[in-house]
Amino acid sequence: MLPINLLLALGELAIVIVFALVAIKARALDRGGFLASVAVGYAIFLGGGWQWFVVIASFFIIGVAFTWYKYEYKKKLGGAQEKGGARNWPNILANGGAAAVFGLAELLFGGAAFAVLYLGAMSAAAADTVATELGLLNRTPPRLITHPGTKVAPGTSGGVTRLGFAGSILASLAIGSVAAALGMLGRFSPAFVVLVAVVGGLSGSTADSLIGATLQRKGVCVVCGSATENLVHCGRPTERRSGFFFMDNNIVNLLATVVGAGVSLALAAVLL
Ligand SMILES: [Zn+2]
């Protein structure tokens, strides 16, 4: 006789795989991104159940939708995501890695704290993604968060815009509303859930800009000479000019989700 739990776990895995297959078919994921998404999505589904999975699926759909929005225009600016916005495995782990760890922690230990951490991490990932994509469409150039008098090129890490800020609020409101509608935090009021998500999301995306302006690696392509934040450009490793050598955009994103999670938990602890 098969235990029901095993059937349930296999059913959940099937749902995660189908979601990732649809995403790869829509060119929202590449192959490595597919495998990373299944791993991250399944850890979250097992730990927090379908409600948690709907939250990360919502984040993914919102993120991809904003990446696709005016993609050709953003590409001309030089700030669009590469490969049509298809997410690769580092991107999936940067945005969902901390959330997956909270999913596994919920599975092993349980308790409301991990749900709050998870909500904060997802809200931060969404806020940061939408801020970046909408920020590229801002009419005036971004200003450096650490030196508001300094204008930087669209897409530069650490640059902030009004539209980007509006995007972070919108995205974290959306994630908070989904979580509240699903009753993800059980006994907590919907207003509380939305507040925790918005504060976590804004803190995460602010942290992303601050780290982006200070610790993130910035360099120059040794082939074409353009300023770049990538570790590799034109097929060659880039020359570092400032920041830590390992601190690329993905590491900064991961740190931002951890900050969002921590701030959400701190706020929940203070309010309860
Ligand atoms: Zn180059």
Distance between the termini: 45 Å
Average pLDDT metric: 94
Q: With helices defined by DSSP (H or I, 4 residues minimum), what is the helix count?
A: 8
**Distinct small molecules bound, one entry per kind:** zinc ion
Share of helix, binned: 55-70%
| Class from secondary-structure proportions | mainly alpha
Unreliably modeled segments? none
Tally of separate domains: 1
Oligomer: single chain
What does this structure look like?
The longest helix has 38 residues, at 31-68. The protein has one domain. Strand 5 (232-233) and strand 6 form a beta hairpin. The chain is globular. The protein starts with a helix and ends with a helix. The strands form 3 sheets. It has a 3-stranded antiparallel beta sheet, with no helix packed on it. A two-stranded antiparallel sheet has the order 1-2. Strands 5-6 form a two-stranded antiparallel ribbon. The protein has helices at 4-25, 31-68, 71-77, 89-109, 112-135, 162-181, 190-214, 249-271, and strands at residues 143-144, 159-160, 218-220, 227-228, 232-233, 236-237, 239-242. It has 8 helices and 7 strands. Helix 1 packs across helix 2 (31-68). With 272 residues, the chain is mostly helical. It binds zinc ion. Residues 221, 223-224, 226, 233-234 line the site of zinc ion.
